[in-house]
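Please fill in the sequence for the structure shown.

STRUCTURE ENCODING:
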């Protein structure tokens, strides 16, 4: 059984990068707890269902670090879950993990969401900042009062149109990720004249609920869908990661008692992403974008 490393006396040359496997999940969960991340073991497992990863282990098979990648068709791969143990003094490990998963993803364009302390490091790897991500979270104090009549539960026949809307946000085909998210999420859509104009998902994550992704052709639809998903979630801990820094959608999140935490920055490796047609009201997650 693997464990999270507790020693800071291991050098980079003492570590081996190996494929992430289900038997690593217990040690990975301990690793994320050690750096203050909210991920449960089941959150790690869900990421492994839709992505691939590497772990840095020593001769005792203790885990010192990790990184994951999520390849998307016709678009840059998402890089995430890049972390090292808080006691680690292994210089260059995070850099090496990132380079390894970019290479495994095909060596082409990729992106990740970086906290402030890592921006310089990724910049030295030729990554360039693209845009911000703003995390809103907290215990839901006030239930939404937005009318819910225009929403309905997602049906299997909605998948193709959901995929099309998501493509308009990300300029990538994230079909396999969306299928996986739909299997474990409550999803709602807004339909007009036989077309899905907006969709949103809600699922367990960390110590509460995560809202995302949310895609909509109109801001009011995004608000309506999130309100519908939160209508029975009084006092639940809720998190939503958005690329919007102002406007009605952000004001709506604030009205629910959610507060903005430290933002992160999306950084791109390689060719810049194509232009997006719709805003990312809510990401599917920090790691998957």
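FILLED IN BY: designer on duty
SEQUENCE:
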């Amino acid at each position: 059984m693997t464990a999270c490393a507790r020693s800071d006396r291991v050098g980079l040359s003492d570590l081996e990068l190996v494929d992430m496997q289900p038997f690593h999940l217990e040690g990975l969960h301990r690793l994320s707890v050690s750096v203050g991340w909210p991920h449960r073991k089941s959150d790690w497992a869900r990421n492994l269902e839709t992505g691939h990863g590497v772990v840095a282990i020593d001769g005792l098979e203790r885990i010192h670090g990790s990184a994951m990648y999520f390849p998307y068709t016709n678009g840059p791969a998402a890089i995430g879950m890049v972390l090292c143990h808080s006691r680690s003094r292994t210089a260059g490990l995070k850099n090496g993990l990132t380079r390894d998963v970019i290479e495994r993803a095909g060596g082409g364009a990729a992106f990740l969401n970086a906290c402030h302390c890592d921006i310089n490091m990724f910049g030295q790897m030729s990554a360039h900042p693209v845009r911000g991500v703003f995390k809103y979270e907290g215990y839901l104090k006030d239930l939404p009062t937005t009318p819910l009549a225009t929403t309905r539960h997602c049906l299997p026949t909605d998948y193709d149109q959901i995929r099309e809307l998501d493509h308009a946000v990300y300029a990538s085909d994230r079909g396999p990720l969306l299928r996986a998210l739909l299997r474990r999420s409550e999803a709602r859509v807004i339909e007009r004249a036989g077309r899905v104009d907006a969709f949103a998902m809600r699922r367990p994550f960390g110590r509460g609920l995560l809202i995302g992704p949310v895609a909509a052709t109109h801001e009011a639809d995004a608000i309506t869908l999130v309100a519908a998903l939160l209508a029975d979630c009084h006092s639940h801990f809720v998190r939503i990661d958005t690329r919007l820094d102002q406007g009605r959608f952000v004001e709506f999140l604030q009205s629910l008692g959610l507060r903005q935490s430290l933002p992160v920055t999306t950084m791109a490796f390689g060719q810049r992403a194509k232009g997006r047609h719709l805003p990312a009201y809510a990401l599917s997650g920090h790691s998957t974008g």
